[in-house]
Design a protein that fits this description.
Blueprint (H helix, E strand, L loop, with lengths): L4 E9 L2 E6 L4 E3 L5 E7 L28 H9 L14 E9 L2 E8 L5 H6 L3 E8 L1 H15 L7 H7 L6 H16 L9 E2 L5 E2 L1 H4 L9 E3 L7 E10 L2 E6 L4 E6 L7 E4 L7 E2 L3 E3 L14
Parallel strand pairs: 10-13
Antiparallel strand pairs: 1-2, 1-14, 2-3, 4-11, 4-14, 5-6, 5-7, 7-8, 7-9, 10-16, 11-12, 11-15, 12-13
Length: 294
């Protein structure tokens, strides 16, 4: 059908975030501009590793990975995270990623990708720890998780909950620096992994987080005929923070929910409007403390 685009997700680069579509098209995401689209049809598997799904299998609307079971296994088998993927000759970097006070993780990424992996995860700040071969980077990743007491992943729900109430730049840089000092002082680093000096990078400007108000809801899934529209306030990782309606309400749209759907533009997006399922988020109290979820 004319005017239909199929999204494959957000990609981060030097020019900021972009929505990438099948066939290589891309749309720059500019803060302050409107975004509006209508969902059409049924959500289908996006395939894996550049290959289309042979059966165009339907996938659930609430899944953040628009792949059927078979394509998901194929994609995972060729991922750096897979234990069977050991012969990559590229240089890898180990990093500390900071998402909020006490919310830090250790991870690895190919050196040639620069900070793209950190932007994709929504890391508000980060620092490099070391560089070297893949297996040495993976061994140090496991060592550091245990020694520093940090997890291997942090849920996006936790990241979203704190984006509008972050400590200042100096405080978060200090937290990364303290963990960096503990990490590089460990004696059991693999010999082939070069330790790197602490240089904390902050993504507040890239994400548009300055002055961001708390979100009041998060889109849980897209549905046939549903509309999402609003003014883009911020973007962090796959999440778009949209001011909807008259601008009083801010909703978070995880763009991973967009993949696998046919989408068509609706107006210019400035009017806003959402007619897809949304889960309300707890409102911060007047004293700045967020109400408990349970």
């Amino acid at each position: 059908m004319a005017g239909m685009w199929r999204c494959v997700g957000v990609r981060w680069g030097e020019g900021g975030p972009r929505l990438v579509w099948e066939e290589g098209r891309a749309s720059t995401l500019a803060y302050g501009r409107g975004i509006a689209f209508r969902v059409v049809g049924e959500r289908r598997c996006v395939g894996a590793r550049g290959n289309v799904c042979p059966v165009a299998a339907p996938v659930p609307g609430r899944s953040t990975q628009a792949r059927c079971g078979e394509c998901a296994r194929l994609d995972r088998a060729h991922s750096v995270a897979a234990d069977t993927y050991v012969d990559d000759p590229r240089t890898y970097r180990v990093y500390l990623a900071w998402f909020g006070s006490g919310m830090v993780k250790v991870g690895i990424t190919a050196e040639e990708r620069g900070s793209a992996r950190l932007l994709e995860q929504g890391a508000v700040a980060f620092g490099w720890l070391g560089r070297g071969p893949l297996m040495a980077a993976r061994r140090s990743e496991e060592l550091l998780r245990t020694a520093l007491g940090v997890p291997d992943r942090i849920a996006y729900a936790e990241k979203r909950a704190v984006r509008a109430r972050l400590p200042d730049v100096a405080e978060r840089a200090a937290e990364v620096a303290r963990l960096h000092a503990r990490a590089v002082a460990l004696a059991d680093w693999p010999e082939s992994l070069e330790r790197l000096p602490c240089e904390v990078v902050d993504h507040t400007e890239e994400f548009g987080l300055a002055g961001l108000a708390p979100a009041c809801g998060v889109v849980t899934e897209l549905v046939d005929g549903g509309v999402v529209g609003g003014r883009l306030l911020a973007a962090a990782g796959p999440d778009l923070h949209l001011a909807t309606g008259d601008g009083d309400e801010i909703l978070v749209l995880d763009t991973r929910l967009m993949s696998g759907w046919d989408l068509t533009a609706v107006g210019d997006g400035t009017g806003g409007g959402v007619s897809v399922p949304v889960r309300e988020l707890p409102r911060p109290r007047a004293d700045g403390v967020q109400d408990l979820l349970f």
